[in-house]
C-alpha cells in the first residue's frame, strides 16, 4: 500500500476505550493533515494522509453500544466490514464539538472584499520570497513555455502519458510541433457523470485564446449512468436522451481542431483528459500554476473571483457551465503569464481565501441563531475572532463539509429535528454528494416512533438478561455427596467464574455457574458436556429461555466476527504467572502478534485466562491445535476461538456490576410493552444496516469511514 492511506490502530483488550477528544484528534488530522496545527493522533497513526480521498462520519442518532449488541444479528454489514471498534467514554455532545460549540466567529469591522485588500493584507517584499509561487517560478515574468507541465509533473499528477500502461487505447492528439511563447492557448473543460465504467464525459467545451467557444457538445456515455451529478454537471437524463454523439466523435473533432503546437489550459485538466481518453503533450494546469503550500489547491470559483473579479459556478444556476469554466481557466493562465509571478503573489490569495471563508462561516452561524439572540449578542459583545473550530478550519482550507440528517445543528451544536426527511432521502442525497465531499457527517435516525423503544429501560434489562444467560451454564446431575471444590476447580479451568451455586430443587443436585467471559461458558459447554466430573458423567447446558433460542446462531456469528479474526482465547493459566512468563511460553507460536491478559476491573488482578492475537487466521487455527492440552507450569490449558473482544467483555462486566433499580412487576410490565414494537425495530435496524452498506460501497478507495453510536448520555 505504498501510495494508499491506511490507519494503524491495532489496539487490543483494555486499550479499546477511547475518549471523544481522541476521536476528534483522528478526524481532525485525517481531514486537515498538518494544516491548522493538526497532528498525528496520540493513540493511532494514519499513514500517507495526503492520499486520503475523504472522511465520512455516519451518526446513528440516539443509538448506543447497548443497541449494537441488542441488534448484533441485524447489523450484519457493520460487523463484517468495520474491524476497529472502540468504546467511547461519556462526554458532552460530540457533534457539538465538531461543529464548534462556543466558537463564536465574528467578522472584523475591517474585513475586506475578495477583490480588494487592506494595507495589512499586502505582503512585504521579504514575505514574498517565502510565497510558494515565487519559490516555484521566481519573481520575473516569463513566457508561457515556462508554465507548461514537464513530463515528470504530468506523471506525478496523473496525466495520461503516451506509452503508459494505463493509457492503452487512448487517442493521441499528435500535436508534436515545438512549443514557443507564441503558441496558441486553448481552454478545455468537461462535465462528467458516474457510470458503471467510472467517470464518463457528458459535455465538452473548448475555447480559443480570445474566449470564443469552438466546441460545446453533449456526449452520450457508453455505459449505463448511475449518477448524473446534476447539481454539479447540469446534465439530466432528459438532456441526453436525443444525443447521438459518442466519445469517439469528440476525440476525432478535437484532434482536427487543435493545431500542431496547441497548448491546452484547464483546472485539474488531468481529470478531463482521462475522461476524454486523450493524450496531449503540452498543458498548463491552473490548479498547479497558482501554487499553494503542501500541495493544496485553490478552487476555480475562488480564483476567478479573486484574480479576475468574475463570478462563476453560481448556486442559482443548475450545474456548472463547462464553456464558462474553460474560459475562466484560460483567462487565469493569460493573467499569470502577462502579469508575472510577483504580481500574482502580491494578491495574497491565502489571506483572501481565509477572509472569505471566515466571513462565510460567521454568516452561516449568525443565520442559525434565533434573531433575538443575534441582536442581543451584537449589543453585548465587541466583534472578535476566536479560535476556529473543526468545521471552520475545513472551510478555511476550501473544503466545504457536508452535513446531512434529520437532526440539524443549531448555533450551540445541539440537534434540531426535521422529521419530514426520511432515511431513504438522506441516503439518496448522500450517495450523490459524499463522493464529491472531502468531509461528510451523515446522520440517520429510526424516527420519533422508535426513539421511545430505543431509550426504554426494559431494553437494557433485556440485553443484560440475555448476556447473563449466555454466561451461565447448568451442569449435572451429581451424586448427593459430590465434592463442590472439585467441580469448581474443573470448571474454573475454562475461565474466571463469577458465581457458583448448587441447585437443590431437582431430584439430584446440579450446579449453576456464571462465568465472567463468554468464551469460558462456551468452552465449558464444548469440553465438559458428557465428561466425568466429581465422579459423575454430566450434562452441561445453558438455560433454556425464549431469548436463548438463537444462542447458537449468535455464538457462531460472534466467532466469525471480523474483529475476532486471528484471536484465540486461552484458559487454565495460573494466576502466579506474569505477562512476561506467558510471552516466553507462547513465543514459539508462529505469527503471534499480541498477548493480552485481562484484569479484574475492580481489584486490578489478572484472570486465569488470556487472549492471543495472530497475524493470520490460519496461524490462529494452527495455534489452537498446539495449545489444547498444552501444560504450562503444571497447568493444563484449554483454548478456543475468541467470541468477545475487549470492548464487549468490558461492557459485560459493567452490565453485571451495575445496580438494578427497578422493581420486578414494573419491569415485567415494561418488558411486555417493549416486545410489541421490537419486531418492527429489528426490521428498521436491518434497513439501517443496508443503508450503511450502500453508502460504504459508494465511497472512493482510501476513505476513512467512522460509524458513531452517540447514545443520549
From TrEMBL:
Q: Work out whether the entry's keyword set contains NADP.
A: no
> CDD domains this protein is in?
REX1_like
Q: Which GO terms describe its molecular function?
A: exonuclease activity; RNA binding
Keyword set for this entry? Exonuclease, Hydrolase, Nuclease, RNA-binding
Please report the stretch or stretches of sequence annotated as the RRM domain. 471-545, 566-644
| InterPro entries named among the record's database cross-references | Nucleotide-bd_a/b_plait_sf, RBD_domain_sf, REX1-like_exo, REXO1/3/4-like, Ribonucl_H, RNaseH-like_sf, RNaseH_sf, RRM_dom
Descriptive protein name: REXO5 exonuclease
Sorted alphabetically, which SUPFAM superfamilies does this protein's record hold?
A: Ribonuclease H-like, RNA-binding domain, RBD
Q: Does the keyword Electron transport apply?
A: no
Q: Which GO terms describe its cellular component?
A: nucleus
Amino acid at each position: 500500500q505504498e501510495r494508499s492511506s491506511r490507519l494503524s490502530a491495532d489496539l487490543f483488550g483494555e486499550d479499546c476505550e477511547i475518549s471523544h477528544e481522541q476521536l476528534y484528534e483522528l478526524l481532525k488530522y485525517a481531514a486537515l493533515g498538518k494544516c491548522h496545527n493538526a497532528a498525528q493522533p496520540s493513540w493511532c497513526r494514519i499513514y500517507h494522509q495526503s492520499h486520503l480521498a475523504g472522511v465520512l462520519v455516519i451518526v446513528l442518532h440516539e443509538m448506543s453500544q447497548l443497541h449494537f449488541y441488542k441488534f448484533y444479528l441485524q447489523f450484519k454489514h457493520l460487523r463484517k466490514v468495520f474491524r476497529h471498534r472502540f468504546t467511547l467514554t461519556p462526554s458532552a455532545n460530540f457533534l457539538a464539538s465538531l461543529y464548534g460549540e462556543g466558537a463564536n466567529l465574528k467578522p472584523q469591522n475591517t474585513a475586506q472584499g475578495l477583490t480588494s485588500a487592506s494595507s495589512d493584507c499586502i505582503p512585504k517584499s521579504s514575505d514574498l520570497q517565502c510565497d510558494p509561487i515565487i519559490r516555484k517560478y521566481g519573481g520575473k515574468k516569463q513566457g508561457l513555455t515556462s508554465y507548461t507541465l514537464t513530463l515528470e509533473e504530468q506523471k506525478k499528477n496523473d496525466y495520461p502519458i503516451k506509452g503508459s500502461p494505463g493509457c492503452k487505447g487512448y487517442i493521441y492528439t499528435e500535436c508534436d510541433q515545438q512549443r514557443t511563447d507564441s503558441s496558441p492557448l486553448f481552454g478545455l473543460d468537461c462535465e462528467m457523470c458516474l457510470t458503471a465504467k467510472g467517470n464518463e464525459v457528458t459535455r465538452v467545451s473548448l475555447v480559443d485564446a480570445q474566449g470564443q467557444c469552438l466546441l460545446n457538445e453533449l456526449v452520450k456515455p457508453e455505459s449505463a449512468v448511475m449518477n448524473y451529478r446534476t447539481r454539479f454537471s447540469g446534465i439530466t437524463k432528459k438532456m441526453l436522451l436525443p444525443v447521438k454523439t459518442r466519445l469517439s466523435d469528440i476525440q476525432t473533432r478535437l484532434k482536427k481542431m487543435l493545431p500542431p503546437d496547441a497548448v491546452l489550459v484547464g483546472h485539474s485538466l488531468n481529470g478531463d483528459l482521462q475522461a476524454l481518453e486523450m493524450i496531449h503533450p503540452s498543458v498548463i494546469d491552473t490548479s498547479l500554476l497558482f501554487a499553494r503550500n503542501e500541495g493544496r489547491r485553490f478552487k476555480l470559483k475562488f480564483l476567478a473571483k479573486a484574480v479576475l473579479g468574475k463570478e462563476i459556478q453560481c448556486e442559482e444556476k443548475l450545474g456548472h457551465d463547462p464553456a464558462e469554466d474553460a474560459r475562466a481557466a484560460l483567462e487565469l493562465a493569460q493573467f499569470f503569464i502577462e502579469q508575472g509571478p510577483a504580481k500574482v503573489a502580491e494578491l495574497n490569495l491565502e489571506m483572501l481565501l481565509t477572509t472569505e471563508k471566515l466571513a462565510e462561516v460567521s454568516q452561516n452561524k449568525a443565520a442559525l441563531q434565533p434573531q433575538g439572540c443575534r441582536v442581543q449578542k451584537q449589543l453585548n459583545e465587541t466583534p472578535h475572532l476566536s479560535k476556529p473550530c473543526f468545521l471552520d478550519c475545513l472551510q478555511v482550507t476550501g473544503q466545504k463539509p457536508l452535513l446531512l440528517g434529520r437532526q440539524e445543528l443549531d448555533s450551540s451544536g445541539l440537534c434540531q429535528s426535521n422529521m419530514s426527511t426520511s432515511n431513504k432521502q438522506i441516503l439518496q442525497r448522500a450517495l450523490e454528494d459524499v463522493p464529491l465531499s472531502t468531509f461528510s457527517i451523515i446522520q440517520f435516525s429510526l424516527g420519533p416512533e422508535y426513539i421511545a423503544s430505543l431509550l426504554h429501560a426494559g431494553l437494557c434489562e433485556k440485553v443484560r438478561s440475555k448476556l447473563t444467560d449466555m454466561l451461565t451454564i447448568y451442569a449435572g446431575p451429581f451424586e448427593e455427596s459430590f465434592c463442590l471444590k472439585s467441580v469448581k476447580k474443573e470448571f474454573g479451568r475454562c475461565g474466571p467464574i463469577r458465581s457458583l451455586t448448587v441447585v437443590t430443587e431437582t431430584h439430584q443436585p446440579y450446579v449453576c455457574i456464571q462465568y465472567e467471559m463468554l468464551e469460558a461458558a462456551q468452552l465449558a459447554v464444548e469440553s465438559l458436556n458428557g465428561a466425568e466430573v466429581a465422579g459423575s458423567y454430566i450434562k452441561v447446558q445453558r438455560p433454556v429461555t425464549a431469548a436463548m433460542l438463537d444462542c447458537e446462531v449468535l455464538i457462531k456469528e460472534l466467532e466469525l466476527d471480523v474483529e475476532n479474526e486471528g484471536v484465540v482465547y486461552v484458559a487454565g493459566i495460573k494466576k502466579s504467572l506474569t505477562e512476561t512468563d506467558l510471552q516466553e511460553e507462547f513465543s514459539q507460536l508462529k505469527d503471534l502478534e499480541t498477548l493480552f491478559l485481562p484484569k479484574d476491573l475492580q481489584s486490578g488482578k489478572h484472570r486465569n485466562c488470556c487472549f492471543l492475537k495472530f497475524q493470520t487466521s490460519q496461524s490462529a487455527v494452527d495455534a489452537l491445535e498446539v495449545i489444547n492440552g498444552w501444560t504450562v507450569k503444571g497447568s493444563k490449558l484449554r483454548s478456543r476461538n475468541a467470541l468477545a473482544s475487549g470492548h464487549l467483555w468490558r461492557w459485560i462486566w459493567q452490565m453485571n456490576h451495575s445496580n438494578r433499580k427497578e422493581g420486578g412487576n414494573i419491569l415485567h410490565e415494561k418488558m411486555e410493552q417493549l416486545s410489541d414494537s421490537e419486531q418492527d425495530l429489528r426490521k428498521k435496524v436491518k434497513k439501517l444496516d443496508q443503508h450503511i452498506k450502500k453508502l460504504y460501497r459508494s465511497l472512493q478507495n482510501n476513505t476513512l469511514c467512522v460509524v458513531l453510536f452517540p447514545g443520549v448520555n
